[in-house]
Specification:
By secondary structure, the protein is mainly alpha-helical. It has one domain (27-143): DksA, coiled-coil domain (Four Helix Bundle (Hemerythrin (Met), subunit A), Up-down Bundle), CATH 1.20.120.910. The protein is built from four helices and no strands.
């Protein structure tokens, strides 16, 4: 069974080196994030293909109900993981679309810069840290 895909980490891409006076979300930064997003999406898509192959290979029927239940539970877990990744792929594709429309890197709530380091840590971030913190605080209050 395959493990859930993790975001690309700093070992899988070279962190962007900011230059003094450099304009935020210029073409170099767009290229940097396009590469990160496309690599991440491609890795997730490859894992989806591997899961389909794995499920086909392991689809044997087991006479023992305990064995069959164990295999089916493993399949269910893998399918839930892939469903979460499918949703993540949609977020990645939304971020790629935002790159094309020059909306990427700016908070969807207040319009402020999200920041290069935050985007490298979470390339699909759509809110600045202040708006995200406020949203999470509000959600915690609503649950209480």
């Amino acid at each position: 069974m395959s493990e859930p895909a993790k975001p690309l980490d700093q070992h899988e891409f070279e962190p962007y080196q900011l230059k003094a006076g450099e304009e935020y979300m210029n073409s170099n930064q767009h290229g940097h994030f396009r590469g990160i997003l496309l690599s991440w999406r491609d890795r997730l898509m490859k894992e989806v293909d591997q899961t389909v192959g794995h499920l086909k290979e392991e689809a044997d029927t087991y006479a023992n109900p305990v064995d069959r239940a164990s295999v089916e539970e493993g399949f269910a877990l893998e399918l839930r993981t892939r469903d979460r990744e499918r949703k993540l792929i949609r977020k990645i594709e939304k971020s790629i679309d935002e790159l094309e429309s020059s909306d990427y890197g700016f908070c969807e709530d207040c319009g402020a810069e999200i920041g290069i380091r935050r985007l490298e840590a979470r390339p699909t971030a759509s809110k600045c840290i202040d708006c995200k913190t406020f949203q999470e605080s509000k959600e915690r209050q609503e649950r209480a």
